[in-house]
Design a protein that fits this description.
The complex is a heterodimer of chains A (177) and B (562). By secondary structure, chain A is α+β, with helices and mostly antiparallel strands. Helices cover 28% and strands 10% of the residues of chain A. The mean pLDDT of chain A is 92. Classes of the chains: A alpha+beta (177), B alpha+beta (562).
């Protein structure tokens, strides 16, 4: 293809108008509001719905909501989640829930923040929160264990509390949970 | 123990009359009678059996092909019709010449309704779908829906049929009836009464198959509760089968409870090694760890069942003590070095100076390779008998899985263990200088540590440490059956193959692999380096196995005369 090139006009050949035009743009931005964020000192506030790091939560009664059903481990595309179920004895401290994870690990280096774990969780026990900058000095440090995940996740105000409701219902009927 | 026949191959009734029925418009011929699962007597074929033959799936909870029919869950309701009869008792025909069908005004449960000639069964009509939806809705009235903490999740019939016929929300506003959630039924079973749908499969199994009438249903209506006889533990040797047949998560195994979700388990077809019955099993494993055994259907061996003793005898596979290193004397070595030294030593051994104590827990192929070594040295061979008390159902008195294999390959004399005193004597007299031991602790069987100390060469292969492995000059770590392939010949002469579920621990190698190398180095005979080839070679060379092929064994094995 032959590109036809027009000859430059006199004004264009003069060169100065383009220079002045350029300086006008620069000057305008000079007085505009600044958009650059001074990142490490200044933190970005993420919009609602942002998919940050997945953490575990407790409910308002301080119960670890996770029951180690292992659906998140199953659905996790990069296999970042590893759950150790409690074993035959269950978890005596959780009452009628019977099960709680013995260990829960998320490898944050593997995690792709897809949110499938939150979506699949039948207990609303795992949420993708707002943390986006996860750092560590070793690979081992980037595998978050249950304790760490729970402390980072905090408390989720559970409106339903189905297990508590079930235990109360059973109690009313004279069946010890 | 009312069912002694289940370990036999049931000969199909020779001339069963066939009857033509239509299932969803497809005409098939089905036998007029089928043997009763308990008594074996011919009884009228039912609609659900006809549907199974037509490969049409009818949802059901309480029906089980190996149990008496109860007909209480109502899930298998179908619509049907029979040929209309005129006043002359002759079938009425439509104007176009086809037989006129008079459709039954009400449905029937497919599991308990016998078929009749010309019957038409409809399993996919809108009415049938509605009935299934209705039944399922009722079954879920008091079900706790605690799938996240239920071990059955993933293999639960309530879950499966809820996908097909369930509703997203419940229409019942009343509180659910609560029942005890953690009932200790026996040493191996935990019952969650809330989840029970009262199908009574467990009751029928334990009464009619296991012969221990331990379970029953107490209370009435919504308060119906499964319970063991008061004050009596549910502890016969077949209790864990009730966990398998429980269609929901009511009966759970204490051993497997809360250990792993079933959808993670890799299922490998295998054979139980705890006795000579050789029940067909499925090994559930994940990430090189065995989590459970489950029975696999084989009507020629174990039907759908297995005993608790065999089922729970898997933990040694993942034991911390496993032998994982090749050793020469007390120092760690490599397979190459050890096999080289062993073959050099054996190459110099005089005929008659070698004895072999193999194990009847080894596979046919391994015993066959050992018999080749034995032939070369004219060696005295034997294995160790394990006779204990058996029962009438599945547990055999012979606790070796492959006694017949040891006998057929010539490793063991007709009276297993008869050669062991002879071996001991000849070691004492000094005529036997080399002893090869596979998978047995000979110090417990008449060849004490003092005798083992007299040997010039003691070659031992085993899985777990014992006094014999301590004294070995050459220690070769072997594999559990879950870590290799091979075949066993069970007490009735059924040759059954098993597959590899997990990787061997550490340096351990399947015995047949290194025996193959050793046989080649010592005798110069080159065998097959694959289990298929090796089995087929054995089938050609051992008369009893003539005509068998690895592929021909299939999943359920083949019988040989013993």
């Amino acid at each position: 293809m032959i590109v036809k090139r027009d000859k430059l006009t006199f004004w264009e050949r003069l060169y100065l108008p383009a220079i002045i035009g350029g300086f006008k743009v620069t000057l305008r931005h000079f007085f505009n509001k600044k958009v650059t964020m001074q990142y490490p000192e200044e933190k970005w506030v993420v919009p609602p719905g942002y998919r940050g790091a997945p953490y575990l939560v407790k409910d308002q009664a301080d119960r670890t909501k996770c029951v180690s059903c292992q659906l998140c481990e199953f659905v996790c595309p990069p296999k970042a989640i590893r759950i150790t179920p409690p074993g035959p004895q269950g978890s005596p401290e959780v009452g009628n829930v019977e099960k709680a994870p013995k260990e829960f690990e998320i490898n944050m280096l593997r995690c792709i923040f897809c949110g499938f774990c939150q979506e699949v969780c039948p207990e609303e026990a795992i949420f993708l929160m707002k943390d986006y900058s996860l750092t560590g000095t070793s690979r081992g440090e980037m595998i978050y264990n249950k304790e760490k995940l729970l402390s980072l996740g905090g408390v989720h105000q559970d409106k339903i509390q189905k297990w508590k409701h079930k235990a109360e219902e059973a109690k009313e009927q004279g069946v010890a949970p | 123990m009312s069912s002694p026949a289940i370990t036999e191959t049931k000969p199909s009734p020779p001339t069963t009359e066939l009857m033509k029925v239509k299932v969803d418009g497809k005409e098939i011929a089905v036998p007029k009678t089928t043997p009763d699962p308990i008594t074996g007597k011919p009884v009228a074929t039912t609609m659900i059996q006809a549907c199974a033959l037509a490969k049409v799936d009818v949802p059901h909870y309480c029906y089980h092909p190996k149990l008496p029919v109860a007909g209480n869950c109502r899930m298998c309701l179908v619509e049907f019709g029979t040929p209309a009869l005129g006043p002359d008792r002759k079938p009425v025909t439509n104007p176009d010449g086809t037989v006129k069908i008079s459709k039954s005004p009400r449905p029937a449960i497919a599991c308990a309704t016998p078929i009749s000639p010309g019957m038409e069964i409809y399993t996919n009509t809108p009415g049938v779908k509605q009935m299934r939806e209705g039944v399922l809705e009722f079954l879920l009235i008091n079900h706790p829906l605690d799938c996240p903490i239920c071990d059955q999740a993933g293999e639960c019939k309530l879950q499966e049929y809820s996908v097909d016929y369930g509703q997203a929300t419940s229409r019942f506003v009343e509180p659910k009836v609560h029942k005890p959630k953690h009932v200790d039924l026996g040493p191996r079973i935990v019952l969650d009464d809330e989840r029970c749908i009262l199908c009574t499969r467990c009751i029928r199994f334990t009464r009619d198959i296991a012969g221990d009438d331990a379970l029953g249903i107490v209370n009435r209506g919504s308060y119906n509760t499964l319970s063991a006889y008061p004050g009596k533990a549910f502890d016969n040797n077949y209790t864990l089968n009730t966990v398998d047949i429980c269609p929901v998560g009511a009966l759970t195994s204490k051993d497997f409870r809360f250990k792993m979700r079933v959808w993670f388990l890799k299922e490998t077809k295998s054979v139980c090694t705890s006795c000579a019955t050789g029940c067909n099993i499925v090994i559930g494993s994940r990430e090189e760890k065995v989590y459970r055994y489950e029975p696999r259907e084989n009507d020629a061996v174990n039907a759908c069942w297995m005993c608790d003793y065999g089922r729970l005898n898997y933990k040694w596979i993942g034991s911390e003590n496993r032998l994982t290193e090749v050793r020469i004397g007390k120092s760690t070595s490599t397979w190459t070095a050890a096999l080289k030294e062993i073959s050099e030593k054996l190459g110099k051994a005089a005929p008659g100076s070698v004895a072999i104590v193999a194990s009847a827990r080894q596979t046919n192929e391994e015993l066959f390779l050992l018999s080749k070594l034995a032939q070369k040295f004219n060696a005295l061979t034997d294995s160790v008998p394990r006779m204990k008390e058996g029962d009438k159902l599945l547990l055999s008195a012979d606790r070796n899985p492959n006694s017949n294999g040891a006998k057929l390959t010539g490793i063991s004399p007709a009276q297993m263990g008869a050669n062991l005193p002879k071996i001991a004597d000849r070691i004492r007299s000094g005529s036997i200088k080399t002893l090869i031991v596979f998978g047995e602790d000979v110090t417990k069987h008449g060849i004490g540590t003092d005798l083992l100390g007299k040997l010039e060469t003691l070659i031992v292969s085993d899985i777990l440490p014992n006094p014999t492995t301590e004294l070995a000059h050459y220690l070769l770590p072997g594999c559990a059956h879950a870590e290799k392939r091979g075949s066993f010949t069970n007490g009735k002469g059924r040759v059954q193959r098993f597959m590899k579920a997990v990787e061997p621990k550490g340096e351990a190698r399947p015995e047949w692999e290194f025996l193959h190398e050793l046989v080649y180095q010592v005798t110069g005979q080159n065998g097959f380096a694959s289990i298929e080839g090796l089995f087929n070679q054995m089938a050609r060379e051992v008369p009893a196995f003539n005509g068998l092929t690895w592929a021909g064994l299939g999943d359920t094995g083949a019988s040989v005369p013993i």
